[in-house]
Amino acid sequence: MRTPLTVATLAALALVATSCSSGPQSAAQGAGDDQTLRVTSISDSPGTDAVVAAFEKANPGVKVQLDSAPVDAVQTNIRTQLSSGTAPDVFIVWPGDGSPTAVRVVAGAGYLADLSAEPWVATVPEGIKPLLGAEGKTYLASSTVAAITPIYNQAAMTEVGVTPPTTWSQLLSMCDAAKAKGKVAFALGNQTNWITQLIDYALAATLVYGKEPDFPAQMAAGKVTFADSGWKTTMDKYLEMNSRGCFNPNPLGTSYESSLTMVAKGEALGVVQVNSALPQLQSQAAPGTQFTTAALPATDDPAETVMPLAAGAGFAVNAKAKNMELAKKFVAFTMSPEALKINAESGNQLSSIPLADVKADPAFDAILAAQESGRTTPFMDQSWPNARVQQTHFTVVQQIFSGSATVPEALAEMDKAYEQG
């Protein structure tokens, strides 16, 4: 997920930093200097800034040239740079298969250094380790877990007189109540490609993967398809939310950044996002504004609700890194207890490795409860066989919102992309 994740992060899920360099040109300078490390990440995560600062402090004389950009730009630029041999020493990569810079996609092309022998790999929970590599090898250091969940502005919820819904009927009623107060229930920025997937993922977690946990295996075996599964109900409900007025007018003309601003200002009650969006919401909101998370219901039985939760995006090492030793040292540092604590606290993230001395933001209570109860499922794209499926999903969601495609047509296109293996 691209997360934002996807998402992504999701999502997204998530997860990194604002730029600490003066841009790509300055990042290219000093590429051969064994005390200089080029790192590329994605925007809007104070945790990465803090981790980089701590790494430089622990390694006097070392300079990390950190470049960052929105998810879409990073995914496009990294693939171009890898092909041309100009990629940085360390760069952000997503777990699984589903995006152009997912670990199995990039490692399969020979672009990533094998990190399997690094000591930190032994500390990674077994549940997420398979998503961090391919063919039994580890290539990705994921320091966070990410969930796709509504993030609600509690003051806006109180103003409208509602609480987070636990059933589908309650969700639709909340949309009506928000409209009556001149607000919208959920801000939606479908102008930004990766945002298009988040509502689908949040609904499909319950409607598809919660009902059939082995759905990815069934798809891989050719026994089910997107078109003949709960994915149709998922997309139908996505459109029902739109027609009911749950979203802001013109989601296709609204960006990710604008959607977060709407929630921070209380113009929208919430946004379905990767939990890593919380720090940006908090930075834009009035002092004292409280946020909370809750799984997005898709049926009228709360016991059926499942939340998408998976390993977040993290750092990988370029197989042709100019500074291989320093690159591996930096990635190892990001997985150290010190850096995990810094990232969790400075970036308000959920650590991929449990830390006894870190208390998560209360806004994440619902995520932790879902994780503890086992009512979670991995991000959908992490089990898809190629990056084309996710890219097709982005496109067809925009098409059904514009009225240029129907749900059956959209799912047929996703099936075609899936069948390409």
Write out key terms for the chains shown.
five-stranded mixed sheet; alpha/beta; 14% strand; disordered N terminus; seven-stranded mixed sheet; single chain; 16 helices; 2 domains; 421 residues; D-Maltodextrin-Binding Protein, domain 2
Q: Return the average pLDDT rounded to an integer.
A: 90
Radius of gyration, in angstroms, nearest whole number: 20 Å
Q: Classify the fold: give the CATH topology of the largest domain.
A: D-Maltodextrin-Binding Protein, domain 2
End-to-end separation in angstroms reads 18 Å
- How many beta-strand runs? 14
Order of helices and strands: HEHEHEHEEEEHHEHHHHEHEEEHHEHEHH
Total of DSSP H or I helical runs spanning 4+ residues: 16
CATH-derived architecture of the largest domain: 3-Layer(aba) Sandwich
Q: What structural category arises from helix and sheet content?
A: alpha/beta
CATH homologous superfamily designation of the largest domain: Periplasmic binding protein-like II
Binned strand content: 5-15%
Form type: globular
- The first-level CATH class of the largest domain is given as Alpha Beta
In the residues, how many domains can be counted? 2
What is the subunit arrangement here?
A: single chain
Q: Give the proportion of residues in helices.
A: 25-40%
Low-confidence stretches: 1-32
